[in-house]
């Protein structure tokens, strides 16, 4: 289904009507730096007023230069930390270093007395207090996309009721059309259309080391071909553990004239010594409006299963 010539509707409504696939749409993020900003967010959170624009640009540039992804976070609704402020002024600026690489999953928390000190925080994970508690970050970035505001707020309210200490609102995650979206740290598990399901149950599954495949978009530390291969392996063989089907190799085979295949090899933890080989073809959607603000339809990449085999 194409969005060309169709009257405007929220991008998340359109996506559901088209049944856009969720699998393999998680953006790349090996390591993250989360910055608490309790104020109103502009379109780009840390780069727009009311956040100090010069400071924000310096901070974002520093984080990205270190190969990390910046993310603004804040408590939601009537959280005690917000209600406890007499004058509404943010008195501390918490930050979190998150490592989402397989085998290195880490969350370390710290805080500074004023935001300019964020420029002095080491970005190598050498400071801060290690935490064994997960971080549930739900996109509620209203200025970026109205679907994130409407659908994301529903998700974060439900999740905060069940997990008040682990739950945060966060800035743009990507994939607006999949709102409500969230990411679960430290593993960096992306989920979409969570308002159609039970956010608390998805979080509980994560705490138990399992993935809810129906709403799963992919793991931030893995490439899109690997995310797609894992999706098809889970569908076929049913292992829903977070660390199931780790990648062994991913190769592009050029077929010429714009055609080719990805060959992804996955380990099978249920049957060691019998790797899974997934052959994928890249495809492109019909023209669509991927965000509420988009004015020109574009095509997005999708993945088609060609073959899936187990063993040598």
Tell me the distance between the termini. 39 Å
Relative helix content: 10-25%
The global form is globular
Major sheet strand order: 5-4-3-1-2-7-6-8-9-10
Task: Output the structural class.
Answer: alpha+beta
Q: Biggest β-sheet, characterized?
A: 10 strands, mixed
* Low-confidence runs: none
Question: Averaged pLDDT, please?
Answer: 91
* Helical segment count: 6
- Write the H/E string, N to C: HEHEHEEEEHEEEHEHEEEE
How many β-strand stretches? Answer: 14
How big a fraction of the residues is strand?
25-35%
Radius of gyration: 20 Å
Task: Give an account of the 3D structure.
- The chain is α+β, with helices and mostly antiparallel strands and 312 residues long.
- Helix content is 21%, strand content 28%.
- It is built from six helices and 14 strands.
- The protein has helices at residues 11-18, 53-65, 80-83, 146-162, 199-207, 224-237, and strands spanning 31-36, 69-74, 93-99, 106-112, 129-131, 135-139, 167-170, 182-185, 189-191, 216-219, 247-256, 259-266, 276-284, 301-310.
- The strands form two sheets. It has a ten-stranded mixed β-sheet with strand order 5-4-3-1-2-7-6-8-9-10.
- β6, α4 (146-162) and β7 (167-170) form a beta-alpha-beta unit.
- The longest helix has 17 residues, at 146-162.
- It is globular and about 60 Å long.
- The chain starts with 10 loop residues before the first helix and ends with a strand.
- The mean pLDDT is 91.
């Amino acid at each position: 289904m194409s969005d060309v010539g169709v009257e405007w509707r929220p991008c998340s409504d359109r996506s559901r009507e088209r049944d856009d696939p969720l699998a393999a749409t998680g953006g790349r993020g090996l390591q993250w730096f989360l910055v608490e900003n309790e104020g109103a967010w502009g379109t780009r959170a840390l780069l727009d007023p009311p956040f100090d624009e010069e400071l924000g640009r310096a901070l974002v540039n520093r984080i990205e230069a270190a190969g990390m992804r910046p993310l603004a976070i804040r408590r939601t609704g009537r959280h005690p930390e917000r209600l406890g402020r007499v004058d509404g002024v943010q008195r501390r600026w918490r930050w979190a270093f998150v490592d989402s690489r397989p085998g290195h999953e880490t969350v370390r928390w710290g805080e500074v007395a004023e935001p300019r000190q964020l420029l002095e925080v080491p970005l190598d994970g050498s400071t801060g207090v290690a935490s064994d508690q997960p971080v549930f970050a739900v996109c509620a970035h209203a200025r970026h996309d109205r679907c994130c505001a409407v659908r994301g707020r529903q998700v974060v309210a439900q999740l905060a009721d069940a997990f008040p200490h682990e739950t945060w609102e966060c800035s743009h995650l990507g994939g607006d059309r999949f709102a409500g979206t969230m990411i679960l740290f430290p593993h960096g598990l992306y989920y979409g259309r969570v308002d159609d399901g039970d956010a608390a149950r998805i979080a509980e599954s994560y705490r138990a080391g399992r993935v809810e495949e129906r709403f799963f978009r992919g793991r931030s530390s893995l490439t899109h071909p690997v995310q797609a291969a894992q999706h098809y392996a889970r569908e076929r063989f049913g292992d829903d553990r977070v660390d199931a089907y780790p990648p062994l190799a991913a190769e592009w085979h050029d077929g010429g004239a714009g055609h080719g295949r990805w060959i992804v090899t996955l380990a099978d933890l249920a049957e060691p010594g019998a790797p899974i080989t997934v052959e994928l073809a890249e495809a492109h959607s019909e023209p669509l409006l991927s965000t509420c603000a988009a004015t020109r339809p574009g095509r997005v990449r999708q993945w088609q299963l060609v073959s899936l085999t187990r063993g040598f």
